[in-house]
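Today's session is about reading a structure prediction critically. Students often jump straight to the picture, but the first step is always the sequence itself: look for stretches that repeat, for charged clusters, for runs of hydrophobic residues. Only then move on to the predicted structure, which in these notes is written as discrete structure tokens rather than atom positions. Here is the chain we will use throughout the hour.
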Amino acid sequence: MGPFIEVLIAGLMAGVLYSLVALGFVLIFKASGVFNFAQGAMVLFAALSFVRLMEFLQNTFAPILLSLAITIVIMIVLALLVERLVLRPLVNQPPISLFMATLGIAYFLDGLGQSIWGSDIYTLDVGIPKEPLLLFESVFEDGILVSSEDLVAALVAGVLVAGLAVFFQRTRIGRALRAVADDHQAAQSVGIPLNYIWVIVWTVAGLVALVAGIIWGSKLGVQFSLSLIALKALPVLILGGFESVLGAIIGGLIIGAGEKLSETYLGPLIGGGIEYWFAYVLALAFLLFRPQGLFGEVHIDRV
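Below is the predicted structure for this chain, in token form.
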């Protein structure tokens, strides 16, 4: 029983990190009704900015805090520029136009990050302990081995996820985001400032990308493959539903736990590599039988 719980915990903690990346997509989708293809590039750009600023400011007082503050400012400025130069001209345009705009933003950020910060692999150390912990020795034989790095990352991600859930459900801005996603013109007609809402949501999505970039960068190193983490967030969204913060959480936990358990217990029977395709096969099954996801809204178009 101990080894099973050990694998399950490792999967759940990985799932929390998947949820963190998926939240960026949910934020943009709830405000515009469009899948934000640029979220992975935002994760990479934020992590690159942070790690390179730490290198430049390493001899200053509190380089981590100073680099974090400057990176937050960078992501806020990025949100302002995206709203002013890209989103504002596309108000009331078809969703495909906004989707193609996010695609362009993704390639632009990839190129801009490489031009400004370079394309090497950078080691990111923010003081997160990396020694494994041995827990529940009195309950299970040999105890349960848990990665302290994964545990800290999961706690940080969990606090952020909970905060965003409250933000969407309990605040006026959260309700305004849902109204904007439903109908731009209707939201404007009742006095909701569309441009202001978009700046807020892209800023929050940028801050989520920064946290995800720091966590994943400390685990894997800051490199351009970080932008591919967004691909793992896609099945999480399909499982949970594109409009649901809770769905992003539950979907991430299911994907994380499922891929670890399947790799450990089914891998020896049918061959390795299950961890790489499990999420996408599960997402395909959901698309066939429940395309709106576990917590997504069912949209019925009447003609």
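Discussion point for the tutorial: The longest strand covers residues 132-135.
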